[in-house]
Design brief:
Chorismate lyase; Chorismate_lyase_/UTRA_dom_sf; transcription; about 25% helix; two-stranded antiparallel ribbon; 6-stranded antiparallel beta sheet; Arc Repressor Mutant, subunit A; alpha+beta; elongated; DNA binding; about 250 residues; DNA-binding; 2 domains
């Protein structure tokens, strides 16, 4: 039995979730198998009921376990294992790593422009206000994967701002400017046909079907937008969603 490390800063519920996740991924808890009960896990690992429930909730959130209320918790097999949840976000390089690719990226320039209408509305800017647009292309195993256009209000940036957009770390740049962690994004997901320009970046035929994520990064404590991004995903990139039926 794998033991918990009680001398680390990693929360016990997270350690337990990782132990159970490893058992599921390795096949030691096969798909569709009922997990040990809360009481069994409490006794085996000397944990409180609340800690065990937090661990199970994390496994449910990450797509490794489903709950059949009144019956118990069951493992989800690899065929349903969600590699990237569409309701979470990470930086693009980390996303590509999580789906099993080796990520790289290339900067294609930084432009100061009058905010396009959709950007102006998302960031609540006035007419003719300037934004800085960082254009990058992310590669998965040296193949074009994601074209990103990241926008920031010009008034938030100093005169000597990093014109690379801090490399891959647009989210961290937002956090540096605003002095707080970015935890939420409001995302519109749209199927579209690649324009000539986008097709050239992604090495596609113009008119190819792609996914566009238009994302507004939010500070919920102040109810204000922090930044806006348009992310164009190559059609080879797939998202999987585990959907739960609501009770009728």
């Amino acid at each position: 039995m794998i033991n918990l490390n009680r001398d680390t800063v990693v929360p016990l519920y997270h350690q337990l979730s990782e132990i159970l996740k490893e058992l599921i991924q390795s096949g030691q808890i096969p798909a569709g198998t009922k997990l040990p009960s809360e009481r069994e896990l409490m006794d085996r690992y000397h944990l409180s009921r609340n800690t065990v429930r937090q661990a199970i909730d994390l496994l449910v959130h990450d797509g490794f376990v489903y709950q059949d209320h009144g019956k118990g918790n069951y493992s989800i097999g690899p065929f349903l294992n969600i590699q990237y949840r569409i309701d979470t976000f990470v930086e693009h390089s980390e996303f590509l790593r999580r789906v099993g690719s080796t990520p790289t990226y290339k900067n294609f320039g930084t432009d100061e422009i009058v905010a396009p209408e959709e950007v102006r509305k998302a960031l609540r800017l006035g007419e003719n206000e300037l934004v800085v647009c960082f254009t990058k292309l992310f590669f998965a195993n040296n193949e074009p994967a994601i074209l990103t256009l990241d926008y920031l209000p010009r008034k938030l940036l100093g005169d000597n701002y990093d014109r690379t957009g801090s490399g891959d770390a647009y989210i961290r740049l937002l956090e540096e400017i605003n002095g707080r962690m970015v935890k939420f994004t409001l995302s519109d997901i749209v199927a579209m046909n690649a324009t000539q320009e986008i097709a050239e970046y992604l090495n596609l035929t113009p008119g190819s079907s792609i996914l566009l994520f238009q994302e507004t990064f939010l500070d919920p404590s102040k109810n204000v937008p922090l930044g806006f991004a348009s992310n164009y995903y190559h059609p080879n990139i797939h998202f999987r969603i585990l959907r739960h039926r609501l009770n009728p």
